[in-house]
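> call design_seq(struct)
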């Protein structure tokens, strides 16, 4: 098996550039909301208007609530184009974006976006004018009420060919020299630093050991997905899923490990969750290790890694896995 240095060389990455601690690398501090969402602050326009956004590696969409939005969810921070001297009008029809438990609809705008002490000029994004909210007490994990928008970090935009994703614009405008961004997500909800998004490299202070490099699948790069192959998934030594390998996507906006219904149901039966996918808190340390084999290396998740506390006042935890019908 190739060493970390050899593997990175094979995919055209400069290891020293990635691993060196560079105080000048632009970064965004992230806030951890109950291990469900990690959001950071950006500013748009001149003068600057502040927003809390989720940075989403699975999407290329960039939107924030518009001043024209009347839904109570939009009551925190809303973009007002009339206040910005750097606003540019973009002629477009209404655009609708669908998510798990809500939809946003709006119009395109362009303005200077300030993120991680970088000023991205003439960045196009969606002003979300209408919000269709499908949140109830059973879907509170969607947590849309904690943020004001989403910034997609996937290449190739999905809602309009004229829109260049913000990270691509950073590269084109010479704001970031390396096509690298990295996430540090802290599971400790009481920590001062909930996480970190770093543009142009990574911060060795946020991790231990060496990186394992896994190629992005070329058959999906034309759609901009950060997709790769899982060699197999094992529970103890006797139960194996994804035996012939399977595809996976990195999604920094999702708090769950999502997989095919049949496989996730098998895992939940193995760890003996109830019908809602929950286990008693006292059983967490007794749960089996789930091993994800990636790039020839095993990554072990214990019960503390794949179980998320439902409430600080309850004795139940929820399995951080969800079954869905998947097609490629």
């Amino acid at each position: 098996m190739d060493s970390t240095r050899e593997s990175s060389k094979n995919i055209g990455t400069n290891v020293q550039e990635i691993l060196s601690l560079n105080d000048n690398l632009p970064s965004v501090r992230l806030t951890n909301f109950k291990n469900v969402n990690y959001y950071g602050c950006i500013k748009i326009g001149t003068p600057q208007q502040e927003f809390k956004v989720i940075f989403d590696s699975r999407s290329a969409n960039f939107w924030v609530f518009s001043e024209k939005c009347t839904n109570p969810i939009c009551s925190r921070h809303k973009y007002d184009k009339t206040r910005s001297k750097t606003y540019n009008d973009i002629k477009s029809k209404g655009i609708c974006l669908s998510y798990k438990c809500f939809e946003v609809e709006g119009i395109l705008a362009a303005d200077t976006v300030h993120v991680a002490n970088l000023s991205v000029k003439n960045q196009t994004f969606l002003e979300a004018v209408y919000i269709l909210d499908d949140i109830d007490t059973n879907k509170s994990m969607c947590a849309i009420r904690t943020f004001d928008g989403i910034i997609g970090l996937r290449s190739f935009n999905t809602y309009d060919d004229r829109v260049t994703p913000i990270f691509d614009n950073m590269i084109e405008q010479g704001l970031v020299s390396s096509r690298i961004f990295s996430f540090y997500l802290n599971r400790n909800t009481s920590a001062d630093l909930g996480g970190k998004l770093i543009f142009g490299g990574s911060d060795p202070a946020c991790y231990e050991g060496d990186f394992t490099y896994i190629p992005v699948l070329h058959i999906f790069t034309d759609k901009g997905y950060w997709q790769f192959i899982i060699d197999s998934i094992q529970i103890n030594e006797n139960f194996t899923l994804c035996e012939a390998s399977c595809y996976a996507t990195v999604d920094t906006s999702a708090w769950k490990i999502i997989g095919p219904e049949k496989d996730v149901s098998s895992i939940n039966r193995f760890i003996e969750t109830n019908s809602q996918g929950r286990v008693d808190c006292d059983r967490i340390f007794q749960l089996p290790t789930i091993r994800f084999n990636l790039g020839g290396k095993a990554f072990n998740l214990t019960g503390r890694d794949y179980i998320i506390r439902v409430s600080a006042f309850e004795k139940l935890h929820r399995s951080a896995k969800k079954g869905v019908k998947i097609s490629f």
